[in-house]
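pls ignore typos typing on phone
flavin-adenine dinucleotide + seq
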Amino acid sequence: MQANVQLGELTTLRIGGTPVRYLHPRSVAELRSALAECRRDRLAWRVLGGGSNLLVEEGLLPYAVIHVCAPGFDRIRRPAHAVIGAGAGVPTARLLHYCRDRGLGGLEFLAGIPGTVGGAVAGNAGAWERHVCNAVRRLRVLRPDGRLKTVRRAALRCSYRHLELDGSVVVEAEFQLEPRSTELIGAQMNRYARQRDERHPLGVRSAGCVFKNPPGSSAGRLLDLCGLKGTRVGNAEVSRLHANFIINRGGAAAEDVLRLIELMRRAVRRRFGIELELEVRHWPGRSKAA
Ligand code: FAD
Ligand code: EPU
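k done
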């Protein structure tokens, strides 16, 4: 356990306070102990991966944060020719390079999505009409009661940006891939990265798209039509490039981001009668947490 870990240093939006307990297990056994410790101390807990899809409030956070990352969950193995198992803490980018170098395709669409394998699977990350859970062969998860369980693809309950985990922690994901030339895989990854470069604000503090796309529509387009690009609350700003991104211009408070989110929601509700649903995960502070 480490004291005084600021989640603002572990999230891409660069906002977030200090959890009452920060646990950094280095093995499945230590993860099991961490869960048991939270149960024993009647402490709620949340799992942190790469912190790239999170809006965390400031101050003392009334839950433990269990950080599933390297070292400990960073192993990649190849149990069969076209099957790769990746620890939940493996950075998604590292997995993609590993697959490319071995001529295994199928995950190229993830190019440019930050974070870890665990976070990608837990949120069923996707782009260009593809979703990561569709490439999963099976998952190894640790249930809240400490039992290790294997979930086969057919039993996964996933939908757009959602995987039902029932409180389990992803420990490893096995992917079914397809042999393909390294050059083709690399070229496809570069193409996706270029398209991202043109459309998304990169190299700035954000948590990706703020809202899910409503069925048949694009939240970014609706927000843009509301004229919201560049709108600011404190140091939180609607990106001028893509209206579904909020940028922390430096020193933004979670409250600024939350007020901007409300303003964006209200504008789309008034103009289009559509209720936008958050895509980023909001981790509340002391006053609001259950
Ligand atoms: P975190 O942000 O750490 O966590 C996200 C959620 O997953 C939390 O609820 C957390 O509790 C849970 N979680 C994390 N690890 C585990 C685990 N081991 N077991 C159980 N639960 C876990 N997302 C897309 O889907 N498509 C995109 O195109 C995309 N583009 C992005 C572009 C930018 C510039 C940025 C900043 C973000 C983008 N994102 C995108 C959002 C984000 O990168 C993805 O959702 C990413 O997969 C989250 O992974 P993470 O490890 O950072 O998860
Ligand atoms: N658009 C605008 N104005 C904007 C933004 C977008 O008019 O400010 C228009 C675009 O011109 C395009 C349409 O809206 O015609 C869709 O935009 P884009 O192609 O950028 O895709 P998106 O629907 O905004 C989704 C995902 C992204 C993913 C891309 C690529 C969601 C909420 N967003 O964006 O995922 O990378 O498609 O497939 O599903 C994320 O989840 O964090 C994320 C970035």
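The chain has three domains: 7-67, 76-185, 203-283. The longest strand covers residues 60-67. more later
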